[in-house]
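Repro case for the chain-ordering regression, as requested:
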Amino acid sequence: MSLFWTFSRQHFYKQSAYRLNFWLEMGGMFLQLYVVATLWNVLFTQTPTGFGSATLTQMITYAVLGILLGAVLSVDEGVHSYLQGQVRMGLITTDLMKPVDFLLHMLARDFGATVVRLSFYLLPPLVFAYLLFDLVLPVDAVQVVYFLIAVFQAWVILFFCNFLFGLISFKTLDLLGFIFTYYALIRFASGQIIPLWMYPDWMQPFLYALPFQSIFYTPIGLFTGVISGGQATTALWTQTAWMIGLFVAARFIWARIHRHLVVQGG
Amino acid sequence: MREHLTVYLTMIRAAVITRLQYRADFLMGILGVFILNAGTLGTTWVLLNRFHELNGWGFWEIVFLYNLWLLGHGIRAVFFRHVTNLEQFILDGTFDQLLTRPASPLVQFMGREIHYLGVGDVLLSALMIGLAYQNLALDWTWWMFLWFLLVALSSAAVELSLLLMLSCTAFFTTRSRALVDAATQFSWGVVQQYPIDMFNNVLRFVVTVALPFAFMNYYPSLLLLGKEGSDPFGYLTWFTPLVALFLLWLTARVWNFSIKRYQSTGS
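-- result from build under test --
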């Protein structure tokens, strides 16, 4: 466990080193918040029935969380960009030589970065957004606990997705081209921006069958109360199933790649 | 002027030859651009499929808006993608090379690279604008097509000017990336995807006057889509080329002002 906190401390120092960048990024996030809140306001005024059973406040809360969680559970930067960088520079050998299990080591690195992003990009802006917009908050402790579990599991799922995606760079040495596809897929299929029930009916079964909805739709849905009752526990168990499934896949594929890995002198 | 052009064309020729070495990268990159934009347009499609319109704009009108931006951006990106890397040129001393040569540093810097990802943007946006033209049953007269070409070039010029002006801060601080990234959020995060008439006056002011990215697509679209009557500021649609020219002139001034005060990082 101490391995996990060591990485958090390192990332904390890194993050606090660039203060101007932090404030500009924060400004950018609030611009996005304003834009999406306006979008839902306009659509609600125009077609009040378009949200189905959700209220305007629920939708605004959904949008706010979608953007904040998007900054924490990052698709841009993660284990895949790390792997690509290490593979290209030939530095991956130093990671392989460490006396820690490779997958665990990567998980610990990512944990550190995520905890730091969580404390910078989720909590303070959420408080601030609460003052600016009318938001719904979880009504009881159970909902809060569910949300926290969902965020944790979402992080693990995203980590394994990123890891599996990053393994491509062991084969091709580069992710450019693939990365656009990956972004587009997660953006479209995770429900980060548009809640899944707003997608056309024929599309929904496909979206629910993919792991990406577990990353954003589940935690946001639980927080806003869009997913509740029996659906809530099903959603959490679905996440757990994906976690285990992706873990097994990651182990298996990594073991195969590791066995055939040839590193040129870096 | 003639001399500047010769220098520029020579540099572009060198840049093209450099790029042609990586063909697989080229195809992969273009494919990536198509998929990335399909993802964003797909999200818009899901919304509009449910709500039918956004503040009076239908799906194909938004497609037109989005792709007019992408066309201008693509043209800019092919030739001037590297302008936002000015900070890197300054930091590693590459910029000082340009200063020692007997040709204008601005012309040399502009002709330094070309980039293929922009080609994907141009192809995709031309295709999508064509589709939007059909689906909206537009019927432009011949001069409207000429106007459209002028608008596309203006759109590229607007983006180029704004980015280069913002990047010029690197001459003073050696850091401009964060500022450019923050400012371009108003471009791809606001202007590209949404008709700005849905926002409040503060944001409209920002994207019309302070960082006039709205002249890349929103204002010119009003005339091209026959919507100039729907916006109280609709007459601004006619000013697109003038705004572009003015911004180019201003950029040249800012560049000259900055370069006179530039001190090398010495690395």
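Ordering looks correct now. Residues 2-260 of chain B form one domain.
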